[in-house]
Amino acid sequence: MMPQDAHWRRIYERISPHLPRVSAQSLRLVCRRGDRRTVAELDRLSRQIASWGRGLAELEAAASRQLARWFAKASRGDYELRAGAEGEPVLTLRELDELKEAVETYRKVLRAKGRAFGEALVEALEGLSGVDPDLIAAQKGALFQRRREPPAPDEEEIKRLLAERFEGAPTVVVVSYHTNPLYAIRERVLEEEGIEIDCYDQGGQSVYQERLAYHLAEGFGVEVLTFTLGRSYLTKERYHNIHPRAPVIPVRAGDWARPYVEDDTGLIKKENLYFILDELVEVTLDYLLQKGVRVDIFSGHYAEGVGAVRRLRRRYLEATGIRALYSATTHSLGWDKFVNTYYEYSPGQLRELNFHLRLPEERDGFREADVVIAVSPTEVETVTNPSLYGASPGKVVSIPGGVDTDLFRPYDPARDGREVEALRKKHRIAEGDRVVLVAGRLWDYKRKGVDIAIEVGALVKGRVEGVKFAFVGLSPHDHPVELWRTSRREVEALVRARGLWEDSILVEMVPHEEMVVWLKLVAVSRGVVLALPRVEPWGLMNLEAMATGNVVVTIDEGGPPHYILDGWNGILVDREDIGRIADRVVRA
User: Fold this and answer.
1) What is the pLDDT of residue 87?
2) 12-42 confidence digits (pLDDT tens)
3) Side-chain half-sphere CA neighbours of 546 within 13 A
């Protein structure tokens, strides 16, 4: 029954369409039976919500226009500020960031206003006599409900789903030409094959792909073929070191790749793979057709891998009539890197990163994929934003990378003492020294925030007795690519300039197993793992450090806030507040 008073009927009609069904039912009851003061308060709150909602809509529209313009500009390699087509100025990225903060502020206020409205509605219901208790309980439930993710299926459920969907064990083709998962087991590969996998562009993604291939093959009987860029030291057609059902297959580049080859091993920077992506895809397709591989799923990793499987699915369908599925796994996003490094690079350096090629590959790859796997929850919003990548929200899931806790576990003197002591002696770290570790693939040191960590170190030195700063994962002095030789020299210059040379340990990339020892050494020394990247979608190194019992000091944006509660299981900091970071490191 509608409220009898025309005034309260109008209030009900204005408010109720914007409420969940249970709240509309509660409001109808309050408008019909409640006193005028109560209904007037609900009316006042609803007007505030409407006003803030209009403001939010205007801000969101402005932010969407600016995002779309910047994405379009970056996609064509245009980094200058010009007026938009309608005469509206294009905001700087810093101004755009401020606009996005305003949007988030409005959202927070709206959530608070909505909660106040819900609480007032519950209070009004409880003040009425003869109200069904179930309605009050339902209204409280609507007020306090939280979105719950569906539980992940267990292994038996996955096996059942695979059996229902595919005849026999499915075949998955994984593509990420710039990454070789054999690097994650490089010591075993060296022992079994007599070859050393180049550390260039290897890191957390190679570990992710190696573990993915192994567990799909071992746990679920899946055939996993991983295609990586061929190098001169990869002389075999297939490498089965990960698992008998998970071969790694080098893709040989022809003369068409010569303009982009960096050294005599056939190294090609990932930023340049976009220029030869069509040719690499054709070589991959030829292999699949010649071997008679029936592909069920193409799995693309990182931007160039996503672009490759988008092409492969289409070309494979044309050649065989079989429409395979394809998934796209982010690992990182070009837009996030562009936004967070824009002011750290010159226009020329930005152009060398080929954002004008990467962004369209990601956009088209995400939109056409059957499923997009984001490695962190924060990437979901970016991937689904209509002004950016515009992927359908219904096909985007967040599956963060995990940690091998059999490998990364707290220090045990009986088990780990000898290795930790050997590493300590190798780098002349005294028994009482505290180690501040900055680790990862630090070749692109600006993206990894190594320069920021050095500034922090300069403030920490002198406040902590016996402190040592270890930078593990730097580019080699003699790397054939000038960019990475220059990167190493620049890091060394920064360390010297900030007076840290005598207290620093500079180390190139180390095997995964040795990184475990480094992390345990830091934990034993009561040290800190410091991670201040300019963009961090997830942060596998942080999780590995936490698993080995370390204090992690890292940024309060991107992936880390999803697994670190500041002051409880780690320390979150504002990357721009160098002094505050130094204080937190000293007190850690």
Assistant:
1) 57
2) 777 777 677 777 778 888 887 877 888 888 8
3) 19
According to DSSP, residue 183 is labeled G
Bridge partners (DSSP) listed for residue 300: 175, 328
pLDDT tens readout for residues 404-444: 899 999 999 999 999 999 999 999 999 999 999 999 889 88
DSSP states along 571-582: EEE-TT-HHHHH
In a 10 Å sphere around its CB, with 0-12 CB exposed, 13-18 middle and 19+ buried, how is residue 130 labelled?
Answer: exposed
Question: Would you tell me how many other CB atoms lie within 10 Å of the CB of residue 304?
Answer: 27
Q: Sign of torsion, CA 267 272 277 278? A: negative
Q: What are phi and psi of 537, to 5 degrees?
A: -65, -35
b (16+ CB within 10 A) / e for 247-277: bbbbbebeeebeebebeeebbbbbbbbbebb
Rounded to a whole number, what is the distance in angstroms from the first to the last CA of the chain?
A: 62
Least confident of 21-25, 168-172, 553-557: 21-25
Q: Give which of 121, 141, 130, 134 is closest to 26, Cα–Cα.
A: 121
For residues 121 and 129, the answer to whether their CB atoms sit within 8 Å is no
- Give all strands (DSSP E) within 449-527, no chain letters: 467-474, 504-508
Average pLDDT, the chain: 90
d(CA 338, CA 177) in angstroms, rounded, equals 22
**Which residues are within 8 A (CB) of 560 and not within 5 positions of it... i.e. 6 or more apart?**
531, 536, 539, 542, 554, 570, 572
